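User: Please predict the structure of the protein below. I'd like the answer in structure-token form so I can feed it into my own downstream comparison script.

Assistant: Understood. Taking the following sequence of 693 residues as input:
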Amino acid sequence: MGKSFGSNYYFLCSFVTVKTTEGDTMKIFTVIISILFIAASAGAQEISGTISLKTPGNPATVFSLDAGQDGTLSAGTDLPLSIRRDIRHEDGVTTVEFAITASDLIYYNIGSTLDTGFDYGDCLFYMPGFWYRDNMRSPKSAPSFRTSDNWTVREDRLSTPLTGIYNTRTGEYSTVLRIEDGGCDAQPCHTAGEVILSDDTSIGYTGFRKNGGKAGIVFGYPYIEEPVSYIRKLTLAPSIHTFTRLDPGQTRKITWEIRTGKADSWSDFVADVWEYSFDRLSPAPVEPKHDTEEAKALLSEYFVQSYVDEYPLKYYSGVGLRTADCEPNGTAEVGFIGRVLLNAFNALEYGETHSREDLVADAGAVFSSYLEHGFTEGGLFRENVDFRRDPAGYEDGIYSIRRQSEGVCAILTWLDYEKGRGRKHPEWEERIRTVLDRFLGLQNANGSFPRKFGDDSGIKDASGGSTSSAVLPLAMGYRYFKDKSYLASAEAAAAYLEKELISKADYFSSTLDANCEDKEASLYASTAMYYMTLVEKDRKMKARYADLCLESACFALSWYYLWDVPFAQGQMLGDVDFLSRGWGNVSVENNHIDVFIFEFADVLDYLAETFGEPRFSAFTKVIRTSMLQLLPEKGSMYDIAKEGYCPEVVQHTAWDYGKNGKGFYNDIFAPGWTVASLWQMLSPGRAENYFKN
């Protein structure tokens, strides 16, 4: 962080409209002109421009136009358009702002390609929150190089409306960032082909292209998605090209920033770009609707309304619910999206603090039922139990290092809390030691853990992408039980993470409902290293873990929105003035935003203090205020049936999880984990206090 950058080139974009006559038909074309100013140290970077004009009822026509060295435009005909342009160069960034005023009605789409001069084969590609490297961790039915070398997407898919290209051979990079004050969107009548938008939109497009073996950044307005669009999980669809209207006398202003630099590694590049993007977009905290106490009181309604006591396992219903009624459905899940045990601890702690005997009693029943009925013959948590399919509780026999880890962390947090109040639970301690000992047997020689396995330790998914989740309970187990084998296991896992994930900047497959590049892989890696800084006594190793925590945190941050995507009138999220800043995209497969944060806010505050990076603490304030926006309460239910049930699948772009689309939620959601995540965010210092005790 805190690095300076150089600039190798300047450029100028200008837009003109060309009027031609064919027979009795007048055609008006808007064209983009690109004038390149090369600095003395510039490489072979060039910008080319195109324009498409859509005449209603006819295919669009694409035009290009060259500019003379003096900046004049040569179209060979009258130009029914006035152009104003403003170019500024500051701190290695070239800002180009232009205003187009039409004298005739036009429907247009303008675009440019920045030819970086980099050999395509040397490059890694970056669209924050959507594209990392080549996306080849993702299946062919999600966006990746398996489908095409060229990708263009609408800006609101991205946590920052930016595309960057990093040259692995030279360390050079180029980025293009869209700058827009305010925003709006239109609901298209069609989702494929050439579409004239029914209303104004501020959403443009960005992406990258292979051109003659060289890598280029494409950008323009309004949005285009090609070669395909991504409409729902693992569903690629035909491309879309949109066109917006400009009336006679109307002016449209558009701004981009072009920036070049050099970074020692792909990780440094991602960190540099996040720092620049944060400074440029300057996300501010959201005006808080609730303080911490009010938010917890509202979330506690979930504990009351979701509690289920009719099965051998008592639990909080929070998996696969319908937003329309939030009624329990018979599924109890220890970790991942259910988070039953963490919710039980939160309910207990809150109940004792606020004299809520009902919450204390329910939480106690949850713990007792899991002690009696919540473990397999092999001593693992029964992590995902379905009482709808079997009154005794159906399980598929597949267990995960992530859910098991989250269950252990919740119980150790509770046991430590109980011990501090003079209450001991030796049977629970024995159970948790059994799970941790099973971890030791599952760990591979390289320090990794399999993603999924059976109760007999047979491997179901050998991927090491979820290894980071195991570090947390192992570190906590060492602190609680003083068993050095748990610390040794955590250290071996941390070494694997350093070698295979962090040093390679390859974060994948930490979530269980997708197998791709995802936010949670880097977030869990960063949190794991944070835990290692808390448990480690050696000053040198503590500093090493802190460095690794910082490096992986920058990737996790890249998934979080630094801007507010616009919505159209009639889209619920826009109608309630929802702001996307501070919310995180999920994964390449699952292109929606959510409130997954848990301890990461504490991690950012720790890094801010350790490395003197105020951006982190500033962004934590954004997260902590923004993620409370959609808590349903009387008078403001935000399309959720019950109070306190925080939404999960928040669909902020042209994508849906199965239902409803942009501006709404999917009809099925999992409030178990969303409530647990926000509660953890609202309880700062938990991990640090645990390791201090």
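That's the full token string. Residues 2-44, 70-76 have pLDDT under 50 and may be disordered.
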